[in-house]
Design goal:
Order of helices and strands: HHEEHHHHHEEH
CATH class of the domain at 85-210: Mainly Alpha
Largest sheet: 2 strands, antiparallel
CATH architecture of the domain at 85-210: Orthogonal Bundle
Number of strands: 4
Structural class: mainly alpha
Shape: extended
Strand content: under 5%
Number of helices: 8
CATH topology of the domain at 85-210: Cytochrome Bc1 Complex, Chain D, domain 2
């Protein structure tokens, strides 16, 4: 093959590498200039960033305060039983009217309990979840705190200090947390929190029941 053709192909090959090299260089270095947006989408939009000034208002604040007298929408915002587990200033002893205690609620609670609670409290609520077991194993094999901390074992839901708590108090614990346990209000909707504590009460009943709690026609199978 003539040298001229070889040189030509070599030059063309090198030129073909220029576009990806230039593109990679452009992507790796910040550009102080505003990019050209052929398709705007929502890249450029009229808005005020947090803590910025807004000349439209007399106080120059872009973040507006709440309007005086504004209340939340919806029929449940004043329902302390549903939202807080409290009835007349006392912990509720039953589920809210909109969530009657039935098998549907218990099955939903079992599903949510198995997802959120079993890692620490275990499948039966005995405080023997896999995370708890692993943490205790690490602490037992270490001479001091693990990674600068110590493990507080998850409490059994069958502990006497827990079984005496009304269902509203248990709902509050799931919502806001207690001691080293964090609250789950941001992860679990209110209705599901009620389902969880309803199932928790069923778990407690299953471990602390007497023969009198078993229907007469079912006792022969025990």
């Amino acid at each position: 093959m003539p040298r001229a053709i070889i040189f030509t192909l070599l030059i063309l090959s090198l030129m073909a590498l220029l576009p990806p090299v230039i593109a990679a260089n452009a992507r790796s270095k910040p550009d102080p200039n505003r990019p050209l947006n052929l398709i705007q989408d929502m890249d450029l939009q009229a808005k005020f960033k947090a803590q910025s000034e807004n000349d439209l208002f007399a106080d120059k604040r872009s973040q507006r305060p709440q309007i005086v007298g504004t209340v939340a929408q919806g029929e449940n915002y004043l329902d302390t039983h549903f939202n807080d587990g409290v009835v007349d200033g006392q912990w509720a002893t039953s589920t809210p009217a909109q969530l009657p205690m039935d098998m549907k609620l218990l099955l939903r609670g079992q599903e949510r309990f198995n997802i959120y609670c079993t890692p620490c409290h275990g499948w039966s609520g005995g405080g023997d979840g896999t995370i708890n077991q692993r943490a205790l194993e690490l602490v037992a094999n270490a001479e001091g705190p693990v990674n600068g901390t110590v493990w507080v074992a998850a409490k059994s839901v069958h502990d006497a200090t827990v079984t005496i708590q009304p269902i509203g108090q248990l709902f509050n614990t799931v919502t806001n947390g207690v001691r080293n346990m964090a609250g789950y209000s941001s992860q679990i909707p209110i209705a599901d929190r009620w389902a969880i504590v309803s199932y928790l009460k069923a778990l407690q009943r299953s471990q602390n029941a007497s023969i009198a709690d078993v229907p007469t026609d079912k006792r022969g199978g025990l």
